[in-house]
Amino acid sequence: MALTNSNINLIRAIAEGNVHDAKTFALLSLKEDKTKKNEWATKNLIKKLSCSGLGITEAIPADIKTALIALSGKEFVPEQYYLRDAEKQLYDDILTMSLTAKNLSEMGINYSNTCLLYGPTGTGKTEFAKYLAQKIGKPLFYVNFSQAIDSYLGNTAKNINKIMMFAAQWPCILLLDEIDCIALKRKESGESANGELMRTTISVMQAMDSMPPNVIMLACTNKMEMLDDALLRRFSIKHEVKNMSTPELDAMIQQYIKATNTEQYVTEEDIAELTTSYHNPGQIIPELNRKIGKKYYKANADMLKADAQKAATAEFTDIWDVTETYTIRVQAESENEAITAAKKAKSDVYYASNRGKSEWIAKRIEESVN
Fold first, then answer.
1. Each residue's pLDDT tens digit, 196-239
2. Strand 140-143 vs strand 68-71: parallel, antiparallel, or unpaired?
């Protein structure tokens, strides 16, 4: 019997060590099998595969869970992200190669879908990775180097290798933020650290060489000149994320306040002050949020103060005497809450011996003044 497309894709995924795709095509292969003799087996296997699926976060091995973080796209709001023409072109280039890399590999053309983003702090390198992940629809893994770096000799390289091996199993975007933490030019380190640095850098390079075509690797740095030359050569794209021009900053602010519906709190004078004092989103957005917050408070001070007062006094509830066979004094807002609190206050032994045998009565003896 000839292999189906699902069978071929399953074999390919196994050969590439891609667990995610292997499971997907295994399910498809089972569902395609309509033979009577395999009916029980296919139903049982489909049930097992369907129920055994772990979420990405749960699938991360325990020993690298703090070093590899699966970022949720829920916190990223694309409407607030200003995409410049240069980064739009970069997005198009990465997407194009993401769609064609697998086919090129089958033709014997090896293309590593890797990109180094470099430039000043605050220009939006990490935000671009989040934007890319959401637009392409792939999970985003963030490597937390502060957790991956180990004081024991050789362990950092082992941690990096484990991270890369796990990420290679998923069609994902792998973000190595501040890669200069581990991949400095080997001559930049002291002699005692040189061997450890070399092992770590080599681990990263080997992982890049063996990463499957359905994984996009992004790295960010503001110290490109300090990175290892051999590592730099492995990035197919090296893209500088520059500070924004004044018109770009203006457009970025306008898009942000429109997306957050806060246009009434930001004046032209505010925008002019921000665009002349700062040069990138990382500098402007926190200051812009502060200005919005102050004006929002000024416009809604009475409401905010009333809410704060209500929250502050909410804990002062009425006093109730709750009686079953004896009285328990509790604080609560209603009779039902008072009875519930009293039941919780009873000893386990007493409650077990009297469960369901008597009636609870609550009487308010003191009313709070709110």
1. 677 788 888 888 888 888 899 999 999 898 888 899 999 999 99
2. antiparallel
Between CA 116 and CA 149, with CA 207 as vertex, the angle to 5 degrees is 80
Which amino acid, one-letter code, is at 335? E
Q: What is the pTM of this model?
A: 0.69
Gyration radius of the chain over CA positions: 29
Query: Which tokens belong to 92?
Result: 């198009």
Separation CA 252–CA 249 (nearest Å):
5
> Which pair of tokens denotes residue 30?
């089972």
* Distance (Å, whole) CA 197 – CA 225: 17
Token output for 314 = 């909410």
Q: What are phi and psi of 135, to 5 degrees?
A: -70, -40
CA–CA distance, 214 with 112 (Å, rounded to integer): 10
Q: Measured in Å, how far apart are the chain's first and last C-alpha atoms?
A: 79
Both structure tokens of 358: 């008597």
DSSP category for residue 53: P
CB neighbour burial string for 73-98, b if at least 16 within 10 angstroms, e if fewer = eeebeeebbbbbeebeebbeebeebb
Distance CA 343, CA 328 (A): 9
The CATH class of 58-240 is alpha beta
- Distance, CA of 346 to CA of 134 (rounded, Å): 52
Helical residues (DSSP H) of the chain, grouped into ranges: 5-15, 19-32, 39-51, 56-59, 85-106, 125-136, 145-148, 155-167, 191-210, 229-232, 246-259, 268-277, 281-299, 301-313, 335-345, 348-354
pLDDT at 367 over 90: no
| Strand 237-240 relative to strand 216-221, pairing | unpaired
Q: Where are the domains of the chain?
A: 5-53, 58-240, 247-299, 318-366
What confidence score (pLDDT) does residue 361 get?
A: 63
Instruction: Determine contact, residues 94/132, Cβ cutoff 8 Å.
Output: yes
Characterise 16 by phi-psi region: left (phi > 0), alpha (psi -120 to 50), beta (else): alpha
